[in-house]
Amino acid sequence: MKILRNIGSLAFVLGLFTAVFAGIPWYMIVADDPVVPWWLRIAVFCLLGGILVVLLTVALEQRKNKTSGGEPLPTESDRTVLLLNSAVLPGREIMEILGLVQGHTVFAIWLGKDLSALVRLILGGELTEYTEMMGRARVIATNRMIAQAAEMKADAIINVRYMTTSVVGSAAELLAYGTAVKLSE
Predict the structure, then answer these.
(1) Bridging pattern class, strands 171-183 and 82-83
(2) Among residues of the chain, what percentage have pLDDT more than 90?
(3) Exposed site from 124, 125, 130, 161, fewest CB < 10 Å?
(4) What is the fold of 82-110+126-183?
(5) Whole-angstrom distance, CA of residue 7 vs CA of residue 18
(6) 35-51 pLDDT, tens per residue?
């Protein structure tokens, strides 16, 4: 279903750019001849057909998710550096504070997925395109923060926090930060 939606999104984008960047200039130059060339007809059909395919696949996905109850959450893998969103770890003592560690990334989705999200905005439901984007951004930012702490030979990162900022359009920055520490055995 996702592949079909991506094909529809790609057809929409190709049709849109062809119609806008080739069709409008063509019309301006040969406005006297009202016959629409074959390539412009195909571009318009791709544009409209792409929207239709995206609408249908999103509607079918929503129907499937309502009946199945959604997807299970992914499990976290074992890490060498412990992550905590608190300042204390029961049973262990902080021996040394190594300093601030951080990881960040800026993510964006392409126009086709943005179209799918726009359709979901109209029909309602979870904006899975953005959820997936922010999930990938969170994993990358967290891994970069962990790598920085591992370079400092940290046992844990305490007071872990996440911050997001909208950069431009559908691009978002995600910052993960915390304090790298050495723990008692």
Answers:
(1) unpaired
(2) 32
(3) 124
(4) Translation Initiation Factor IF3 (3.30.110)
(5) 16
(6) 777 877 788 888 888 87
Domain coordinates in residue numbering, the chain: 2-68, 82-110+126-183
Q: 């074959």: which residue's tokens?
A: 38
Q: What is the mean pLDDT of each run of 10 residues along the chain (185 residues)?
A: 78 80 72 73 81 78 64 48 89 93 88 75 81 90 95 94 86 94 89
Residue 141's CB: how many other CB atoms inside 10 A? 24
Q: Residues near 103 by Cβ (< 8 Å), separated by ≥ 6?
A: 140, 141, 142, 143, 144, 145, 146, 147, 148, 175, 176, 177
Give Cβ neighbours of residue 167 (< 8 Å, ≥ 6 apart). 106, 108, 173
Q: Over the stretch 56-69, which tens digit does the pLDDT of each residue have?
A: 887 777 677 666 65
